[in-house]
Amino acid sequence: MHRGGQRWLFTHQTMKELLTYYRQMLLIRRFEERVLELFGEGLIKGTAHPCVGQEAVAVGACAALRPGDYVTSTHRGHGHLLAKGGDPRRLMAELFGKATGYSRGRGGSQHVAAFDLGFLGSNGITGGGLPIATGAALALKMRRESRIVLAFFGDGATGQGTFHESLNLGAVWKLPIVYLCENNLYAMGTHIRYTCPVPNVADRAAAYGMPGVIVDGNDVLAVREVVREAVDRARRGEGPTLIEAKTYRLLGHSKGDTDRPYRTREEEAQWWARDPIRRCRERLQQANLLEPARDEALRAEVEREIEAAVQFARESPDPDPAVDLGEVFRPG
Ligand SMILES: Cc1ncc(C[n+]2csc(CCOP(=O)(O)OP(=O)(O)O)c2C)c(N)n1
Ligand SMILES: [Mg+2]
Asked: Which residues form ligand 1's pocket by a CB distance below 6 Å?
């Protein structure tokens, strides 16, 4: 087990890339905030799990992938899809249950997939993405393809049987896969100290004979760096890596979790001080790449993109029950 992501230099190129990551993280943040508002307006039904605070994991990890690579996601998957190249309009339409959504409005927040983007689905089953990712990696290996899979999952998912089964087979078969745990310290209201007997999720990698790497999940460049190393290893045919990105969800577990009695406001304030977007902005400002006017212009641009997504979703047609139900209940 080692701590990764500290060995790189900031080249001018890296700093320019950081600006695009900053924009992507802002887009994800505003998407999530807008989704919560839309529940309030009654335009989105069901539930959603905002990834506010965890944007750097999604963006840093996807920045290390090629377009043809696959990812699997979780119930907290909007950021993963947007970072993998998802169009906010089509994701918003999916949340509205509209025919123009990525899964034609039938998947919703927790079961949306975009195969053309290599996005094998968000997943409402905790730990449910892990065997899907492992199976996809097995298929890629059997077909001798150079693509790889990255599985996002939460700390809570590491208590599921699927975690053991997937990492075990992934390691035994040396599959081209990266297991990326977003340790945000909580599974719903349960702190990880009550469910994990070792100090780090990454310590568990030893049981599977694979490298276990810890990274600051609120540092987008650090995440990109460690994921790159793991992706290269997977592509070389050397098998999986378990990465633990230490992060925090700054809002409630889901849109209904507003009081959060299981944790203190002081703890939250400490993590707000480590907000990945704020840290990224400060780094860009120190490099003179983000003067206030530019920052303002960028934010306004993101705002317009989000509003365009909402408008697209509102104006999109509902799915046609004649077509869509026919596809759900395929007769014998
Ligand atoms: C198999 C299963 N058990 C329980 C749940 C209820 N549940 C939904 S999210 C969640 C917590 C997941 O925690 P974690 O994996 O850490 O992800 P996070 O919510 O922190 O992103 C649980 C227990 C579920 N969806 N699926
Ligand atoms: Mg968690």
From this structure: 74-76, 124-126, 154-157, 184, 186-188, 253
